[in-house]
Amino acid sequence: MQILKTFTPDLKQKNQFFTPDLKQSTIFVKISVTVFERNIIIELKKWVARHDCKPLILRGSRQVGKTTLVDSFSQNFENYLYLNFEKNPSATTLFEKEQEIDALMAEVFLFCNKENKPGKTLLFIDEIQNSTMAITRLRYFYEAKIPDLYVIAAGSLL
Predict the structure, then answer these.
(1) C-alpha distances in angstroms, 42 versus 45, 49, 73?
(2) Exposure string (b/e) for 41-70, b if CB count within 10 Å is 16 or more?
(3) Which residue has the higher pLDDT, 116 or 26?
(4) Which of 81, 92, 116, 125 could be stapled to 153 by a disulfide with Cβ–Cβ 3.0 to 4.6 Å?
């Protein structure tokens, strides 16, 4: 007997049901996914609520969900800029020039092909360990005191 599980998250439907199909020797299971908020999301919301929000570095092993976490958290922002220094090494060149944060952010928006809309902006630099210059420049984001800019960096080899 072959067992096949089909999971179809449907947030509108709350009923769970189990339907055996004995003619085909297959069992289909449909479940509804309950949305829950991770503790780390709550901590990230507290981080954003602070008035003196310093850049945040997420460290952890590879493939543990750092990028997924930040992608999910980005829904709380009007602008989301994602730079991945491993998948796109040319992004590291943005941080090699000596320039003001406003000019750097204009280049990041252009690089990400995003419109600079007013509102809260989350800049996520993934695999930041591939650029020592970007790690060094994180402090400039805090010193610039840009009120609606939040910076998160992540890396596995920091």
Answers:
(1) 5, 11, 10
(2) eeebeeeeeeeebebbebeeeeeeebbebb
(3) 116
(4) 125
Residue length of the chain: 158
- DSSP secondary structure letters along 57-122: EEE--TTSSHHHHHHHHGGGSSEEEEEETTT-GGGGGGGTS---HHHHHHHHHHHTT----SS-EE
Segment 12-21 shows an average pLDDT of 46
Please say whether the beta carbons of 52 and 143 come within 8 A.
Answer: no
Domain boundaries, the chain: 1-35, 39-155
Residue with the bigger pLDDT between 38 and 109: it is 109
Q: What sign does the CA torsion over 41, 47, 53, 54 have? A: negative
Helical ranges in 14-65 per DSSP H: 39-49
CA pair distance 8, 25, nearest whole angstrom:
20
Provide mean pLDDT across the span 64-90: 91
Query: Is the four-CA dihedral 155, 91, 106, 121 of positive or negative sign?
Result: negative
Average pLDDT over residues 51-79: 88
**pTM, full prediction:** 0.72
Q: Quote the tokens at residue 37.
A: 């908020």
